[in-house]
Design a protein that fits this description.
alpha/beta, 5-stranded mixed sheet
Length: 490
């Protein structure tokens, strides 16, 4: 405030009091604005630093590391290798059982060829009458024969009835459908699309060039739609199996239908998997997948769509939680320190569970080992709920609301509930790759095909079965007018 001149009147006490009040209000507003800007800056830094280690982003979305980061990782890797006993060299270690191609038995060999040494260093030429030094050294070579497709021509005669004079056309025999392609070929086309993720045009090229069967892109799509109809009932069987399962891994990923955003849902148990495409990522979609009367346990990543389930029916994914705690530990101030403590405790929980599995301990041992960590994590979350930081406060309060769901794996006997949802994420990888190659689907029929073929492929993987062989059996049954075989284990 400028100094008043001698002739000017000094401001009164009331005027000074008003000025101080105005300046105090301006100062408070500036402080509030500065706090808001600090919060925005922190949030932008957090988003900029997101990667697969502190969020749900896949590793493929990680930014390329800088040269300094690459060097730091190399130094850490070198230190880790140096800590290992004896500083093992890369590759197979002494005593490791090697892997090699097994020899085919003689009854599977198509042709035997015996070869003689040509000439000895002393000049003798061998004719086979010489004494054998030891057993022959066997070398087997595998090769594909020239592929020539089988063509079966069915001639349907049209004959006049001698009684009434009407012409009568012969019907196709059992097992021969109206399709121009047999069940094995149709199953292979479905495998090319659903297992090996080839486009319709690529399938037409492979079938024409490699198998010698001329086929158009439209015919390929028609075969796929027929196989989708064949898999309709098996998909329903898998859906019911997931609804009745004791432990289900559930997850979802984005999916596009005609350019509209949707979601591909997955429910997988130990022996079956069911995929389902839904327009929304909602509670109703989760209920359609699992059934409103679901009575088992679900392993999830804490998404709100599963909150209609009782907390004691859920097992929250610790791998997902660790990534969230990494994000919390990277914040500044007291929030970061709290996050670091929670992160260390969570990693210790995972370590104890690993020892439980590797050493074959019982559930009582696991519960006793985890009890101190269980209390410590709860105490830290209680502190976080009282934090001045709103995001930290909400995160900790949300975890406390679902706290029992973190420990279902050590509270429920006889089910061996996993502590991570890695099984669901692993099952979704194939679907994500199909989405990248095919850019989603273009019709409701395409959605149904994706649901059914992904469910069959993942179910066969879980059971250690051949997806191709199952598709051959299902297509053969359809050509004979029989229902498809059950995808469930006997």
């Amino acid at each position: 405030m400028a100094r008043a001149s001698r002739g000017s009147a000094r401001p009164s006490y009331a005027e000074l009091e008003t000025l101080v009040a105005e300046l105090s209000a301006q100062n408070a507003a500036l402080h509030e604005r500065l706090a808001e800007q600090d919060a925005v800056i922190e949030e932008l830094r957090r988003r900029l630093g997101r990667d697969s280690s502190n969020s749900s982003l896949p590793p493929s979305r990680d930014p390329p590391p800088s040269r300094a980061e690459r060097r730091r990782r190399a130094r850490e890797k070198a230190k880790e290798l140096a800590k290992r006993e004896g500083q093992r060299k890369p590759g197979g270690q002494p005593g490791h059982e090697g892997k090699s191609r097994q020899m085919a038995p003689p009854e599977q060999v198509n042709q035997f060829c015996r070869h003689l040494p040509q000439e000895c260093s002393c000049g003798h030429r061998f004719d086979g009458s010489e004494a054998r030094a030891d057993d022959p050294v066997v070398h087997q070579k595998w090769e594909l024969p020239p592929i020539r497709p089988l063509i079966f021509q069915h001639e349907r005669l049209r004959l006049f009835c001698p009684c009434c004079g009407k012409p009568r056309l012969a019907e196709l025999p059992d097992g021969v459908s109206e399709s121009a392609f047999g069940p094995r070929l149709e199953a292979h086309i479905a495998t090319f699309a659903g297992v090996y993720r080839l486009s319709r045009r690529q399938i037409a090229s492979v079938v024409s060039e490699a198998l010698g069967i001329p086929i158009s892109v439209g015919a390929v799509n028609a075969v796929i739609m027929r196989m989708s109809e064949v898999l309709k009932d098996p998909w329903r069987v898998l859906h019911e199996a997931v609804k009745r399962a004791s432990v289900v891994h559930a997850d979802e990923t984005s999916w596009s239908t005609r350019g509209r955003e949707g979601w591909l849902w997955l429910g997988a148990c130990a022996f079956a998997a069911c995929f389902r495409i839904d327009p929304g990522r909602t509670k109703q979609a989760a209920q359609e997948l699992l059934g409103e009367e679901f009575g088992g346990f679900v392993v999830t990543d804490r998404y709100a769509s599963y909150h209609w389930l009782d907390v004691l029916q859920q097992q929250l994914c610790w791998a997902h939680l660790v990534r969230q705690l990494v994000d919390l530990s990277q914040r500044t101030g007291a929030c970061g320190k709290l996050g670091t403590k929670l992160l260390n405790a969570a990693r210790e929980v995972v370590s104890v569970h690993r020892r439980y599995l590797e050493d074959g301990h019982d559930l009582d041992w696991l519960s006793a080992e985890l009890l101190p960590l269980r209390e410590q994590i709860k105490e830290l979350l209680e502190r976080g709920r009282r934090s001045r930081n709103t995001r930290t406060q909400n995160f900790c309060a949300g975890l406390l609301d679902e706290y029992d769901a973190l420990w279902t794996f050590c509270d429920v006997e006889d089910l061996n509930i996993p502590i991570t949802n890695n099984a669901a994420e692993r099952a979704l990888r194939h679907a994500v790759l199909i989405r990248r190659v095919q850019h989603g689907t273009q019709s409701e029929q395409g959605d149904r095909w994706v649901e059914r073929i992904l469910s069959i492929v993942e179910t066969c993987r879980l059971q250690g079965r051949s997806a191709l062989q199952y598709l051959i059996d299902a297509a053969t049954a359809a050509h004979h007018g029989r229902p498809a075989p059950s995808p469930l284990p006997p």
